[in-house]
Amino acid sequence: MTTTSLVVRDGLDFGEGPRWRGGLLWFSDFYRHAVYTFDPETGDETKVVDVPGQPSGLGWLPDGRMLVVSMTDHRVLRLEPDGSLVEHADISEHCGFHANDMVVDDQGRAYVGNFGYDLHADMDERDVETILADEQAGLTNLVRVDPDGTVSVAAPDVRFPNGMVLLDGGRTLVLAETLRLQLTAFTVQPDGSLTNRRVWASTAPQMVAPDGIAADPDGGIWVAAALGAAVVRYAEGGEVTGTVQTTQNAFACAVGGPDGRTLYAMTAPGSEPVHVDGRSAGTIEAATL
């Protein structure tokens, strides 16, 4: 299946961390420094909260309070019912450079990725192929934050841990290792620890650098291609089973909509700040699955 998306909202700088919740698409915008919602019925965008430290991954605790990654200060913040944004956890000890995407399970445990190092500075010095071949580039930890704010390393030696999804009722966590060109699966133990690390799908044959990812109702994983204008669907084992062509590079995605079968992609001309910060060139695009 190959289809083409339609732009449903423009004017973003760099959209990230989209999540479908309560009939709305929630997302972060790095360079507008805020979390927003998008209503696909009306086309309206509403600001939820400002995040001066640059927001990224989103999730919710069991009681409905929202968690948001604050990238540049390596924190997970919590939005309280009175509208105040407070520190939930400081993950600096285990981060290499900016914190990034996040998934929160139904117990309120948050798994948080980070860049590992200054990728954009490296891209100014080396080509993409050289960076991908350097096994030390972006090597860092996947971090776990328990509901009480306790921080630990969930998985060491991952390369630029990025988007994540939970499958099998939360028993499997799949992580996009952007610079390893791989979706990596773990078994989630009852205490939240991750075991049985394995390759869920290699994205290397298509040269897809997996950024944000989203699971669909049929068990496939949609992968924002980052280096290309597409979101690609993988089955476990690595078979490509669908592609949505986007108008510009796709960096994050979510599956939602009233019937749970709309793919939303966050797109932009590139990921380097000079190309997107303050330029209002980012979009939300949508396709029916």
Walk me through what this model shows.
The strands form six sheets. A five-stranded mixed sheet has the order 1-22-21-20-19, with no helix packed on it. The chain has a four-stranded antiparallel sheet with strand order 2-25-24-23, with no helix packed on it. It is mainly β and 289 residues long. It is built from three helices and 25 strands. The N and C termini lie close together (9 Å). A hairpin with a 4-residue loop joins β8 (66-70) and β9 (75-79). The longest helix is centred in the middle third of the chain and has 7 residues, at 119-125. This is SMP-30/Gluconolactonase/LRE-like region domain-containing protein. It comes from Janibacter melonis. Pfam families: SGL. Keywords: Hydrolase.
The mean pLDDT is 97
For the record, the CATH class is Mainly Beta
Number of strands: 25
What is the percentage of strand-forming residues?
Answer: over 45%
Mass-distribution shape: globular
The largest sheet has its strands arranged as 1-22-21-20-19
Tally of separate helices: 3
SSE ordering: EEEEEEEEEEEEHHEEEEEEEEEEEEHE
Give the termini separation: 9 Å
CATH fold assignment: Neuraminidase
**Estimated helix fraction:** under 10%
- How would you characterize the largest beta sheet? 5 strands, mixed
List keywords for this structure.
SMP-30/CGR1_Lactonase, 25 strands, SGL, globular, Neuraminidase, 6% helix, SMP-30/Gluconolactonase/LRE-like region domain-containing protein, mainly beta
